[in-house]
Amino acid sequence: MMKPLMALAATTALITPAFADAPTTGAVLDSYSDLAEAGYSDALDTAEALQGAVDALIAAPSDTTLAAAKAAWVAARVPYLQTEVFRFGNPIVDAWEGRVNAWPLDEGLIDYVDMHSAAVNEENDLALLNVIANPKITIGGAEVDATEITPELLGGTLHEAEGIEANVATGYHAVEFLLWGQDLNGTDAGAGARPYTDFVTGDGCTHDNCDRRAAYLKAATDLLVADLSEMAANWTADGAARAAIEADPKAGIAAILTGMGSLSYGELAGERIKLGLMLHDPEEEQDCFSDMTHLSHYYDGLGIRNIYEGRYTRTDGTVVAGPSLSDLVKAADPAVDAQLRSELDASVAALAEMKAAAEGGMAFDQMLAMGNDRGAAIINKAVDALVVQTRSIERAVAALGGEIEVEGSDSLDNPNAVFQ
């Protein structure tokens, strides 16, 4: 459970344009919104490419079309992950995020699982519901007709059913599970290995219900596209998220810093990275079916730096840039700005080292293994860099005369609680 790292009063005289050579707060917030619009637009475009690859897989299941759909999923994650820094400080984004990136999930809610695996969760009555195999299901004591698997069924009925967060029925990770299947390798090498024949209708279907499995994959992918379309629209010129962030300059700048600090510290360093190492548990890795967790961590870190520097490289290679938070901090205290920029570079480099190690054959879940000293060193280096930069984010807040609240994590703030 996350808790505040620092909780400072919301009443603040944050940011005036009195600093010499500083851009106006309005210009910085407009640039921030432009980065959000570009990032979510890229996330939508790549999700639509994934949608096309899924359609091709369903139409003609094969090793080739399954591999293409997996590659499209990986590509779709790249721009989306760089938008995660817009969470925490932006209520519109934070309320929406659980629909597209919720994890971990009890995958037995969706499809067949190994009954000797961690998917068997006795604390969740729906952990083995397997809606793909069951057109009639019971949720909260009420019978639900799941004969037709639709986006409405997934998002309106199944997702977080009975108020349980592990009942994840939608988003990137539901699609990931359907493409890869369970990773039953623990902290050994190897990702999920779902066969393409799981989508073959008629003769050749494996694990039964191939038509419903295809329908679920189609519905989940279509819903992902719809959700991303909604968020991309929220950051256009007349979008609700842009309007909210630009309505109050003081609160807007605080939102940027809150997003940076909370993702850096409690979410990424703590919940997503350190916790798994403490428990040596591959179930704590974010992309646990595909073994692409290293990419999630790297692009999250890159997104934090993007926002501070006011620059984002789009999937087509073009660069969106404008007045930045760095410009404001530099005008207020050049030493703090220089230190934070250096530390952001260091954290991105540490996460790049993790990415390179995974691409070289040691996946993130292998790094978590007890006795893997090299893996632990790579993880701890990234965690330390993220923690250090969060302290400088606090200094930037102080330099700008501001006060924010940053999410914490028991894995960093109260390690003993993790084992209770």
Question: What is the compact description of this entry?
Answer:
The chain is mostly helical. It is built from 15 helices and 6 strands. Helix content is about 55%, strand content about 5%.
Tell me what you see in this structure.
The model is unreliable at 1-18 (pLDDT under 50). 56% of the residues lie in helices and 5% in strands. The protein is globular and about 70 Å long. The strands form three sheets. The protein has a two-stranded antiparallel ribbon with strand order 1-6. It has a two-stranded antiparallel ribbon with strand order 2-3. With 420 residues, it is mostly helical. It contains 15 helices and six strands.
Unreliable stretches, pLDDT < 50, 5 or more residues? 1-18
Strand arrangement within the widest β-sheet reads 1-6
Order of helices and strands: EHHHEEHHHHHHEEHHHHEHH
Helicity range: 55-70%
Shape annotation: globular
Structural category: mainly alpha
Q: How much of the sequence is in beta strands?
A: 5-15%
Which helices and strands, and how do they pair?
Blueprint lengths: L3 E4 L17 H35 L3 H19 L9 H11 L34 E4 L2 E4 L5 H8 L13 H9 L29 H25 L5 H8 L1 H31 L13 H17 L1 E3 L5 E3 L3 H8 L1 H26 L4 H4 L5 H27 L5 E3 L2 H4 L1 H4 L2
Antiparallel strand pairs: 1-6, 2-3, 4-5
Helix pairs in contact: 1-2, 1-6, 1-7, 1-8, 2-5, 2-9, 3-6, 4-6, 5-6, 7-8, 8-9, 8-13, 9-11, 10-11, 11-13
